[in-house]
Amino acid sequence: MKINSTVFPLLAISALMLVGCGGNSNTARKGSSPTTGWAYNDPKMGGFEVKDAQEQDLGPNLVFVEGGTFTMGQTQQDIFYDWNNVPRRVTVDNFYMDETEVTNVDYREYLFWLRKAYPNFIQVYRKALPDTNVWRRELAFNDPLMKNYLRLPQFNDYPVVGVSWRQANDYCTWRTDRVNELRLIEYGVLDYDPASQFNTDAYLAGQYEGKVKKNLPSLSNSKDGKNGTRRVTLEDGIILPQYRLPTEAEWEYAALALIGNTYDERVVERKAYPWNGHSLRNSDPKDRGIFAANMRRGSGDYKGTAGSANDGFSKPAPVRSFWPNDFGLYDMAGNVNEWVLDVYRPLTFEDVEDFRPFRGNVFTEYRKKEDGSVMVDSLKHLVIDTVKSVKRYNYRKGDNRNIKDGDLGTILGYSMENSSDSLSTTHKMYYQGNNKATTRPNDGMASLVSDKSRVYKGGSWRDRAYWLVPGTRRFLDENEARDDIGFRCAMESLGDRIPANTKKKKK
């Protein structure tokens, strides 16, 4: 039979298309590479290990916050005429956030572990101690609070205060390490070590041994026909992302919790405060008229009159004393102000990106030895350096805290970086080098706004209602502390799916 010359090429092309699309190839098999056809997790086919996508485990005390777009900034009257948070439309990604502020008992646990892990480095413990002197006032009798507030069990569930921004960051690093160490113990990889100096980054870099109970089997590292073993890696899905302070955008978005005020992607009512409505009092019929946050109502009025107190607390209140917002987060207004990750600039809203906006990036890299291995410090943490000047389209230097801020030093090309500093992960996570932005190079004029200025939000027991509005913002030096500033932690959400294991919205 004679084959039509015009039909044969079409048949050949169709056959090639079927093969190329995986019609009869290994790419159609489950558990195989769609690009090469080699099987995953098979020691006879290379041993490339691929874990099924898992739902992210929920870290202790965390609440899922579904991201989205919102109008960030102050939409109420700017009575101080700061003009430092003009409204702007931005998008926040999914993330997790602490249900409550970090409490005294939480922080004392941190101090306990530091003393236990570093008995020969007492300065590590002392550096982490809150400044209890923040309670003192020249014309007030607050010395009892200075002695009792942090330590006594009656104050266990009260938010910790007297913690600087840098101390809060160190706490986040420690918490990451303790949570991940426990996960490795629960997975049977490590044994409990009472003198543990476990650090997540050091472990992942192969610089921590500890009491290894049983490493994971390695499909690619076989000896004499038997599989070898290996450490846990990020690809195994066991290690959780680091705890950290929330960015200002994340904090403000979480505080507003507009999920209770939207219909078909439209915000039907802009909230003035984290709870519904524009009133400082609860609108629910069973609790009508009760103050919704711990605040200072007026001059000399911190709790109201005995027998009919308004919020009932004359100083910080135990966490969960008031109602949560629609995300299930407590005390996002009042009680204590909260540190966020950002460096303060009055015109941040003009400069930051509209997706995951943030000012304060200091890009870092691990310091390495001549053989290419990473270096560790005396605390067994990785040593990090600020990335030096680079020529990339997306960034040109490591320290970007003062990028585009328009100050005289930036205009004249003065560098604000100190590239000689080496840093440990624990004590200098984001701040690199000695700040030199407070003095301008020509006129010697000083400013309170510098690369050490960090934003805090939320209002406190000492503040009036204006500062309880999520859009308001203030700043303080990252090394200073006060009796009305605390913090809570956040964590990345991996992927865009809404996890099923998150806590339900509370009424």
From TrEMBL:
<feature type="domain" description="Sulfatase-modifying factor enzyme-like">
    <location>
        <begin position="60"/>
        <end position="353"/>
    </location>
</feature>
<dbReference type="GO" id="GO:0120147">
    <property type="term" value="F:formylglycine-generating oxidase activity"/>
</dbReference>
<dbReference type="InterPro" id="IPR016187">
    <property type="entry name" value="CTDL_fold"/>
</dbReference>
<dbReference type="Pfam" id="PF03781">
    <property type="entry name" value="FGE-sulfatase"/>
</dbReference>
<dbReference type="InterPro" id="IPR051043">
    <property type="entry name" value="Sulfatase_Mod_Factor_Kinase"/>
</dbReference>
<dbReference type="InterPro" id="IPR005532">
    <property type="entry name" value="SUMF_dom"/>
</dbReference>
<protein>
    <submittedName>
        <fullName>Gliding motility-associated lipoprotein GldJ/gliding motility-associated lipoprotein GldJ,TIGR03530</fullName>
    </submittedName>
</protein>
<keyword id="KW-0449">Lipoprotein</keyword>
<dbReference type="InterPro" id="IPR042095">
    <property type="entry name" value="SUMF_sf"/>
</dbReference>
